[in-house]
Design goal:
The longest helix is centred in the N-terminal third of the chain and has 25 residues, at about 85-105. This protein is mostly helical. The model is unreliable at about 1-25, about 40-85 and about 120-135 (pLDDT under 50). Helix 8 packs antiparallel against helix 22 (about 570-585) and helix 9 packs parallel to helix 11. The strands form 9 sheets. A 3-stranded antiparallel sheet has the order 4-5-6. Strands 9-12-13 form a 3-stranded antiparallel sheet, with no helix packed on it. It has 3 domains: about 25-125, no CATH class; about 155-195 and about 415-585, Glycosyltransferase, CATH 1.50.10.10; about 235-395 and about 605-620, Glycosyltransferase (Alpha/alpha barrel), CATH 1.50.10.10. The two termini are about 40 Å apart. About 50% of the residues lie in helices and about 10% in strands. A hairpin with a 5-residue loop joins strand 5 (about 290-295) and strand 6 (about 300). The structure holds 1-deoxymannojirimycin. 1-deoxymannojirimycin binds near residues 441 and 513.
């Protein structure tokens, strides 16, 4: 810093030995003059030259170039050629600008200067202006969308059940906070932190995933603690490999919802910052993103197990909602362009059996991998996002709408079957052969089909609602036919069984939300009390078999007479399972469907209204 560099001039070694009396008065006066001229010069340099410390270290105390070149944005290779003039001109201009700014500042009243400094600090802390990490974000007028805060249910029984679910959230959160604060997830039996490799070195998945649930349950102290953790600790600048899909749905989705619910700038800034970190995943010949990405190097790859180096349908197809909002909140169209390009690639491809989407697609060749089709794992949320893209666009994304209803038609024709016992299920398709198995994950489809029923073409609304109700009943049966009254990971309709898991490795329950999610949608659309009743059965089973001293745990076998714990409290338990349960026992105007769409991790995102003036968060010109 300048202080140390000035020392040799203020007290040069050869003057240490000189006695003050050895100078005559005129010499003293001349020395004083020289000294004060020098001090004035130094003050000038400190106050009027911009970034003088960097300039000093970059230009004077280093060999000419590299740092200066990066600072000015000029390619270092060009220094020493004619571009040196440009560089000098830029430095001169920077200095002139700084001088003008300094003069303006000097003319201000000291109180105004103090206020300016405070304003700048606040804005930087919130990531609104340059200098913060949300560099260059447009200033946005935040308008809270309707239905953020719910009313107490009027019916006392419902009110009590809703309060119980809030208590479950409190218990999950308190234990996470006590034993695993800052870790991705909690191990509720061994009472310690847990981190899966889906998030690489990223931290705090439960905190970010739970933010919006805390908010809608009015747990504001907990929300503030979570916000503080985000401000102080949520860091994306790390050399680590993450799952693009998981980080998008949980972290980007969680941050976006937290922003829309609370209006806190830090969430917008962090969401955009993270979105930018994910962009290198799209650097493939087709623009179909890699599944895995190193956040520092930007190098991507696919899961080693995925057919011939393919990307996965449910992963690259589940970015659309978040990326459209990232473009809206950042003013940068790049996010929307990336996800619209995915559609373009898919539109060019022939679909097997007149409209099915295989789970595997090679991002280099743009060709399908194995012809496996599923509405459960590897496929599921791709279909969900087609429908929700249309709804979230205030029903203006006609392409999304057509893709969804066409896909559903192909699914109905090829995959949906009825068992001899009368249970409707969605099978999996492997190169033309049906596997009569339905995953817990597939159970979200009841809710999805109900959500889309209203817009179904050819007067199919009633038919879609019936289909949704039948699938919901099947999923409920998968719970009812177990000992613990919790659903297995997958259940089969062959070998003489219906809605029962036959393989040991399909008997586990990891606190997944899909069945409860579907109950919530069915309740909202029908108000048939059985959906609340089924939801309450699930609450009782969770309390009886998953609640342990240190939180909630998954179980290894739902057919066993006693639970054998897997010792993980998944972050989606707080983000989805408990949120959907709470909404199931809330009034319909809490996060109403006319204004909100849930991402696949249950993070509510506002519908982007066609009428811009009534939009949720308007950019200020
Ligand atoms: C969640 O992370 C999301 O719902 C995702 O779409 C599927 N799997 C889990 C919950 O089961």
């Amino acid at each position: 810093m300048p202080v140390t560099t000035l020392l040799p001039f203020t007290a040069p070694p050869n003057r240490k030995s000189a006695s003050p009396t050895s100078f005559r008065l005129t010499e003293k006066f001349i020395l004083l003059l020289v000294f004060s001229a020098f001090i004035t010069l130094c003050f000038g340099a400190i106050f009027f030259l911009p970034d003088s410390s960097k300039l000093l270290s970059g230009v004077f105390f280093r060999s000419a170039s590299v740092e200066t070149a990066t600072r000015t944005g000029i390619d270092s290779g060009s220094i020493g050629t004619g571009n040196a003039d440009k560089m000098l001109a830029k430095i001169r201009k920077d200095h002139e600008d700084a001088l003008i700014e300094a003069k303006d500042t000097l003319q201000k009243h000291p109180e105004d200067i103090k206020k300016d400094i405070k304003n700048d600090k606040d804005q930087v802390a919130q990531g609104v202006v340059k200098g913060g990490k949300g560099d260059g974000l447009p200033i946005i007028e935040y308008v809270r969308p309707p239905g953020v805060i719910g009313r107490e249910p009027s019916d006392p029984d419902t009110k009590e059940k809703r309060a119980k679910i809030k208590e479950m959230m409190q218990f999950s959160w308190d234990n996470y906070k006590r034993y695993a604060w800052g870790f991705n997830e909690l191990r509720p039996v061994s009472k310690q932190g847990h981190s899966s490799n889906l998030f690489g070195g990223l931290k705090g998945a439960t905190i970010v995933d739970a933010l919006d649930t805390l908010y809608i349950m009015e747990m504001y102290d907990e929300f503030e603690a979570a916000t503080e953790w985000v401000v102080k600790n949520l860091d994306f600048n790390m050399n680590t490999e993450i799952s693009v899909f998981e980080v998008n749905i949980r972290f980007v989705g969680g941050l976006l919802s937290a922003y829309y619910l609370s209006g806190k700038e830090v969430f917008r800034q962090k969401a955009v910052e993270l979105g930018e970190k994910l962009l290198p995943a799209f650097k493939t010949p087709t623009g179909i993103p890699w599944a895995l990405l190193n956040m520092k190097s930007g190098i991507g790859r696919n899961w080693p197990w995925a057919s011939g180096g393919s990307s996965i349908l449910a992963e690259y197809g589940t970015l659309h909602l978040e990326f459209m909002h990232l473009s809206k909140l950042s003013g940068n169209p790049v996010f929307a362009e990336k996800v619209m390009n995915i559609r373009k690639v898919l539109n060019r491809l022939d679909k097997p059996s007149g409209g099915l989407y295989p789970n595997y697609l090679n991002p280099n060749s743009g060709q399908w991998g194995q012809h496996h089709v599923s509405v459960g794992g590897l496929g599921d949320s791709f279909y969900e996002y087609l429908l929700k893209a249309w709804i979230m666009s205030d029903k203006s994304d006609e392409e999304g709408k057509k893709l969804y209803y066409d896909a559903l038609q192909a699914i109905e024709k090829n995959l949906i079957r009825k068992s001899s016992g009368g249970l409707t299920y969605i099978a999996e398709w492997k190169g033309g052969l049906l596997e009569h198995k339905m995953g817990h994950l597939t159970c979200f489809a009841g809710g999805m089909i109900a959500l889309g029923a209203d817009g179904a073409p050819d007067q199919q609304t009633g038919h879609h609602m019936e289909l949704a109700a039948e699938i919901t009943r099947t999923c409920h049966e998968s719970y009812a036919r177990t000992n613990l009254k919790l659903g297995p990971e997958a259940f089969r309709f062959d070998g003489g069984v219906e809605a029962i898991a036959t393989r040991q490795n399909e008997k586990y329950f990891i606190l997944r939300p899909e069945v409860i999610e579907t109950y919530m949608y069915m309740w909202r659309f029908t108000h048939d009390p059985k959906y609340r009743q089924w939801g309450w059965e699930a609450v009782q089973a969770l309390e009886q078999h998953c609640r342990v001293e240190g939180g909630y745990s998954g179980v290894r076998d739902v057919y066993a007479s006693n639970p054998n714990y897997d010792d993980v409290q998944q972050s989606f338990y707080l983000a989805e399972t408990l949120k959907y349960l709470y909404l199931l026992f809330s009034e319909d105007d809490h996060l109403p469907f006319e204004h909100w769409v849930f991402n696949t991790e249950a993070h509510p995102l506002p519908i982007i209204k066609k009428d811009f003036s009534s939009n949720q968060a308007n950019e200020v010109e």
